[in-house]
Design goal:
Number of strands: 25
Shape: elongated
Number of helices: 15
Helix content: 25-40%
Radius of gyration: 28 Å
Distance between the termini: 51 Å
Largest sheet: 8 strands, mixed
Oligomer: single chain
Length: about 425
């Protein structure tokens, strides 16, 4: 119960942040077939109940393949895109129609003692996607395979305003009445861009983007994507990553890659500080910057436990407000997770590094080193020659980073006069 209460409390800032935001969610056909699909539906309903405006785009690749196999038809591809002739289009329409009905049925459930109880959702679809044929590429005619030409932004927006979930299939229609088979990733990306969505959420088999050793990459910015696309080649992770990057470059603030196979992956990504998938964002998720007056509350929360343990000298809110300009901080998605301060010492060419603190959940990540580098850079910019630090618990950490044992007598007179002999802090110095 305690874990549940703590989780809910820590999730509350995200509940507030996501309310009235527009999310475009892409779920491939493999995700619909997976045993975890029911849990994904429950999580989507939860998001809707928390005030998220939602467009759900579904895929249908494995379902199309099953229908082609049943009719003895051989799938044809060029450059990883399906060539859709008339018999294949019939299979596409059959698969997409069946999936759409199945998804609508799941979203219509209202069973007692289930997560769907009382949801009373309205699911809306329609001809919101106008398409055109891809045409002939490398001498290959893609026939009824198309690409998105236009999204009915106003029509979708009206349905979202009415609190409906908009369900889009990977089909588009031309002004001449033709039907085109589309890639669900392209539909989702274009919808997110044209709606000015707050998030594009892309489901895949993996937890997110994995590096060459199989380790999850938690955060990327668009300029970093090209190298991963080259490594991934035709892998489906590459398709998802490319879609995420395209959306971000076109103005969608954040794109997320999460697993359809992992129960609760979507909620973990959206309602926890570190998430569980891969975030692609124009802005750096974790920033090292100088503190402002708005950061005082977060700083107090960070340093209070260390003050209570006697590791840091107590600072009141008034003192922090007065000295906020001395602090550099590491901010992670709105939470201050580390800080350090530089105090130039009057009548000298020395400064003091003080109040270096890192949230226990984020230690061993090199953030202390980043802050030390920032403080040293600030000190050099001020023309300081020596950096002092007084510590009772972390002498070894500073020794490992070039600080040498010193003494009170080495401190400039102004600072030496304020030395607290009851704390018996050890004095270290470093030549800049």
């Amino acid at each position: 119960m305690r874990d549940y209460v703590n989780w809910l409390r820590h999730a509350s800032p995200y509940i507030n942040a996501h309310r009235d935001c527009t999310f475009v969610v892409m779920l491939p056909g493999e995700g619909i077939e997976h045993p975890n699909f029911g849990n994904i539906v429950h999580d989507l309903v939860l998001l809707h109940s928390l005030g998220v405006r939602m467009v759900l785009v579904h895929g249908s690749r494995p379902q199309i393949e099953a229908r082609l196999a049943a009719r003895g038809l051989t799938p044809r591809f060029h450059q990883n895109l399906r060539i859709t002739d008339v018999p294949t289009l019939e299979c596409v329409i059959d698969a997409v129609g069946s999936l759409r009905l199945a998804i609508e049925a799941r979203l219509s459930m209202d069973m007692a003692a289930s997560p769907m109880q009382g949801a009373r959702l309205r699911v809306v679809g329609g001809n919101f996607v106008t398409a055109r044929p891809i045409g002939v590429v490398d001498g290959i005619d893609y026939l009824h395979t198309g690409e998105v030409r236009r999204i009915d932004r106003k029509g979708i927006g009206r349905q979202l305003d009415e609190r409906a979930i908009v369900l889009l299939s990977p089909l588009g229609y031309s002004p001449t009445g033709e039907i085109f088979n589309l890639a669900c990733e392209d539909v989702a990306t274009r919808v997110a861009i044209d709606l000015g969505a707050d998030k594009l959420l892309l489901f895949g088999a993996e937890p997110g983007l994995l590096d060459g050793q199989g380790t999850l990459i938690r955060e990327l910015r668009p300029p970093q994507v090209a190298a991963h696309l080259e490594r991934l080649g035709a892998d489906y992770q590459g398709e998802l990553l490319d879609a995420a990057a395209q959306a971000c470059r076109a103005g969608v603030p954040r794109s997320h890659m999460v697993s359809y196979a992992e129960d609760g992956a979507l909620l973990t990504e959206l309602f926890t500080r570190d998430g569980g998938g891969t975030l692609v964002t124009q802005e750096q998720f974790e920033k090292l910057r100088e503190a402002t007056i708005e950061d005082v509350g977060g700083l107090l929360e960070l340093i209070r436990p260390l003050e209570e343990q006697g590791i840091l000298v107590r600072r009141s809110r008034e003192v922090l407000e007065r000295e906020i300009g001395q602090f550099s901080i590491v901010e992670r998605d709105g939470l201050i997770i580390a800080c350090a301060a530089l105090y130039p010492i009057a009548d000298s060419d020395a400064g003091e590094l003080a109040c270096l603190a890192v949230n226990p959940d984020y230690r061993h990540g090199g953030r202390g080193d980043e802050l030390l580098e920032r403080i040293e850079a600030r000190a050099r910019a001020l023309g300081l020659k020596t950096l002092f630090v007084l510590t009772t618990r972390t002498a070894h950490w500073f020794r490992e980073r070039g600080f040498q044992p010193s003494g009170v007598e080495r401190l400039p007179a102004v600072r030496a006069s304020l030395y607290n002999y009851q704390r018996q802090s050890k004095v270290f110095e470093k030549t800049l």
